[in-house]
Automatic annotation (TrEMBL), chains A, B:
Domain Prephenate/arogenate dehydrogenase positions: 5-293
Record keyword Disulfide bond present: no
Taxonomy, superkingdom: Bacteria
Keywords: Oxidoreductase
Source species of the chain: Aromatoleum diolicum
Organism lineage: Bacteria, Pseudomonadati, Pseudomonadota, Betaproteobacteria, Rhodocyclales
Entry annotated with the keyword Lipid biosynthesis: no
InterPro entries per record: 6-PGluconate_DH-like_C_sf (IPR008927), NAD(P)-bd_dom_sf (IPR036291), PDH_C (IPR046825), PDH_N (IPR046826), Preph/Arog_dehydrog (IPR050812), Prephen_DH (IPR003099)
Name of the protein in question: Prephenate dehydrogenase/arogenate dehydrogenase family protein
Length: 301, 301
């Protein structure tokens, strides 16, 4: 992969910071400029050596930049693109790390329509339980899936450049259409988060909430771990991907209606059969996942 | 606590075996007899020194017994009580470790109606991810909640004996009515299990199941950990406690209907508010739970 002369990271938190650290460790970047809505966060990124320079305006940040990573909360993506658009040079390659893709792509068409050949959307599947630049580390993406969802207008060279950058971070690259990406992650990530937030919210609002939590044990702890995730980030994801998420929720509601019918009729045989199928699928997956996640950062999401 | 001269454990798995090991370590039991439907399992319990004797029939097992723990799968409880009833001496104290209480108590009234003063139902909140006597260990109940749900007919001395036995195992004793027990655990344990089994079963049945599982990450892993639980055990629990579980499921379905409405209307503010409340409640609980679970067995359920 060719050296990046000037990398701009917008939103230097766990995701953006780890991308910067990984490329620096790989010796693939000469200078890293951070930009974002929080001055304090940029100052910490500078103090930690994650970036070489904190920039207050897009004009200077993008001056001479050859690669840009957009890693703000997805709800900020629209404003970020609007602000950067006037200062983006024709050849600069842009990618993002948004957890949803359809909404990011809508923002790209809205604000970066003159740059479509070089704007290549992506989503690294890593990080979430911790946040902030202090949590960033160079091997976050080691062995992790990175989904790239190219636009029809993308230049093959730009797609390659984005793939190579994520590969240099240790990522395992997959390409798929953005709609497919959003459906897949609605099912395996966004819906579970919604369900966990919902259960805790339901119980916390009960008159006997204290008693209930007093008897909750380790099964509850693991099931609800993702209900400790960042509310703003998950609001943005759920809103951005709400079409796919609603479809997944409705399918899950149908599953619950079936389970409800089995309970109501006391159909232990079918219930056991369903539990056994779920257990078998879950354990087979978990074994494979553990083997694939042999890196020490496997606590990340 | 007075010494138990002859302890009978019916169902010598993780739960029954750990009870036996804990009382033996505390020096509070002279002889331990195991009984159960699996000869192989009893032979292993004997080989491991968890029991002193494996008994093939209730008549000899109960001869001279002063304390009995019933820890078979809850679905076996009815048959177990029917089999033991003719051989139970008037003064023998009986307790159980069933995860549900209303159904166990129904079986008690059905089969042990002549022994009500000395049959004291209980539920230790520990163990589940592993099973079998090989997984048993003496400190399983250390610092764990044990819910005792006395019958109106119980003799105070029998309740005290059962409380003392679980306390000697390290348990923290709570008394509550059985209906309340079943409602509490439907909410914080049985419903989460049902939800996790349901999600995995839903996804495993999709045409693109392989793709979906391929992109599932650590959030999914933790959320679905309890879907790896034992199908027969959870069938029994769900069927036995289906009234309370249906009530909890319906309340949760109402929560999901609310979340669905927020998604449909794109109400990010209320969604974020709900997520923030859930996160706050979850993290406050998790901190307290971690402090209370300072024993090395905290992987248990």
């Amino acid at each position: 992969m060719a050296l990046i002369d000037k990398l701009v990271v917008c939103g230097v938190g766990l995701i953006g910071g780890s991308f910067a650290l990984a490329l620096r460790r790989a010796g693939l970047v000469r200078r890293i400029v951070g930009i974002g809505r929080s001055e304090a966060s940029l100052a910490r990124a500078l103090a930690l050596g994650v970036i070489d320079e904190a920039s207050a305006d897009w004009a200077s940040a993008l001056d001479g930049a050859d690669f840009v990573l957009l890693s703000p909360p997805v709800g900020q993506m629209d404003a970020v693109m609007a602000a950067m658009a006037p200062h983006l040079a024709p050849g600069t390659v842009v990618t993002d790390a948004g957890s949803t893709k359809r909404d990011v792509i809508e923002a790209i068409y809205r604000h970066l329509s003159g740059h479509l050949p070089h704007v290549v959307p992506a989503h690294p599947i890593a990080g979430a339980e911790t946040s902030g630049v202090e949590a960033a580390f160079a091997s976050l993406y080691q062995g992790r899936n990175v989904v790239v969802t190219p636009l029809p207008e993308n230049e093959p060279a730009a797609i390659l450049r984005v793939r190579e950058a994520w590969e240099a971070c240790g990522g395992v690259i997959h390409e798929m259409p953005p709609q497919e990406h959003d459906r897949v992650f609605a099912a395996v990530s966004h819906l579970p988060h919604l369900l966990a937030f919902g259960l805790v919210h339901d119980l916390a609002g009960r008159a006997n909430a204290e008693q209930l939590f007093g008897f909750a044990a380790s099964g509850f702890r693991d099931f609800t771990r993702i209900a400790g995730s960042h509310p703003e980030m998950w609001r943005d994801i759920c809103i951005a991907n709400r079409q796919a998420l609603l479809a997944e929720l409705d399918q899950y509601l149908a599953e619950l209606a079936y389970l409800r019918a089995l309970l109501l009729s006391g159909d232990g045989d079918r219930l056991e059969q369903l539990f056994a199928e779920a257990r078998q699928a879950r354990n087979a997956w978990a074994e494979q996942f553990a083997n694939n996640s042999a890196n020490p950062a496997s606590k990340s999401e």
